[in-house]
Each structure stands twice: as C-alpha cells, then as structure tokens.
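Internal tracking record. Fields below are filled automatically when a chain is submitted to the structure queue. Please do not edit lines marked as system-generated. If the sequence contains nonstandard residues, flag them in the REMARKS field before resubmitting.
Queue: standard
Priority: normal
Entity type: single polypeptide chain
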Amino acid sequence: MRDGSQLTAFLRAPDGSLRQQTGSTNGTWSATTVNLGGPTNGQFLGQPAAHGSAGGRIDLFVRGTDNSVYTRVFSGGAWGPYTPLGGTVTDAPAIAFQGPGVWTAAARGLDGLVWTRDASGSWSSIGAPENRPTYGRPSAAADSAGRIHVAVRTADDSVWERVRSSSGTWSAWQKLGGTVGGSPTLVTVGSNVYAFAQGSDYTTWQNSYNADSNTWSGWSRRTEFPSGSYLGAFGGAAAADGHVLVAYRGLNGVVRQTVL
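SYSTEM-GENERATED OUTPUT FOLLOWS
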C-alpha cells in the first residue's frame, strides 16, 4: 500500500507469521520487518490484503489457519488486536475498500462459490459463473462510481467478473475472457480498474475498465515480465500519475516492486 512516497508491504514469512516492511517509491526498503504474528497460533494463510486511509490508518485482512477471515487495524500509532470476521474460506480474502468501515470482502467458500460480506453485515453467497466452482482467490475493487467489482478465475482458465452497483444490486456474471494460469488482481487508479493475471504462457496480461464509459479494453500482454519470472499473483496499489505499483514474489522468494 502507498501513502504519498511511503510504501508498506505485508508478507507471509516462512514461519507463517505476518511481517510488515516499510519502503519508499524510490525503491529503498527497511532492512528489518515488524512481526505482526497472526490470528491463529501466530500464523495466517495465503496473501494478506491491506488498505490505507487518512491519518495513517491501515486496515489489514487475512485468512487464519482455522479458515476464518480476520481483520486488524493500525490507528493512532498502534496496532489493535485481530478481530474475527467469520466465514469459512479456502483462500485469502480480497477487499474492495472505500474507507474505514466501508468495505466489501470477497472469498472462496468451501463450496467453491464466492462469498461476500460488508463491514457491518454477514457472509452471503454471490455464486459463481455458471454456478461452477472457481479456482484460487477472487479479487475485488471499488471503482470511482462506487461500484464493487469481483473477479474470479474459472475452470476453463478464463476471467469473469460480477459487479454490485452503488445502489447495492448485483449484475449477472460477465466473461472477460483471457486464458490465465493464476488468480487475477484488480487495482483501482482514478476512474480505471486494472486487471492483471499471469497467462497460460506464464507472461503477464492486463485488462482495464473505465468507470466513465463502463467498458473493458480487452487483454494485452505486458512486456516488463519475461515468461515465468515470478510466482503467485500481484499485490497492487495506485501509484502517481495514473500508474500502478505492483509487488510480486520472485523465483528466489524475494519480494520485488515495479511501476506499470
């Protein structure tokens, strides 16, 4: 996540604990990490999700080793405790964040379908494309018009999305196409929502949605990443001047950053 020129990364250490590391947009990072433990026996599973807001607040979301979702908040210069959000999930949660107390979580349930909840609500299923189990973790983002986008990878390795309007009505599932080999990542930058995914050729592909025109551009390949140059899915945040800052795990296990 980015706050001006300051960056904060959250990652899972080999011992299963959550680590926090600070850096800068110029590429320099602290030599040490802060151990934030985890909600269950000091551990968590999968990829954490973190969002920053005014006053230096950070809202953090993880999957515990008990397969429930937890949140933890940094506010007033200190971390609060892990708070359970319930659910029974099979992968890390994704968060469409609109502000403290205004967010939508999305996660894959035991039935392979997508389940969501708001900050003050409870978990409910929004199904899946063709009502078939999805693969990996979903991704979620809020666009500049207040719509919530949830994107998933399906059994045929294509990407689909479902959108909740600002009035709370969910659309039908829409196929965005592509042939992917991993979970998609959605990142909002201004009036655009960018989707990134590793293709079946292990290169990186991008699709972009414009909230003003309500249209997707179609998939195109990013040339910055040779085939098979990283593991897993991107973590992303809005960068300056309409760009996207992404963090990813290199083949040697080291986390790297770049601006797209």
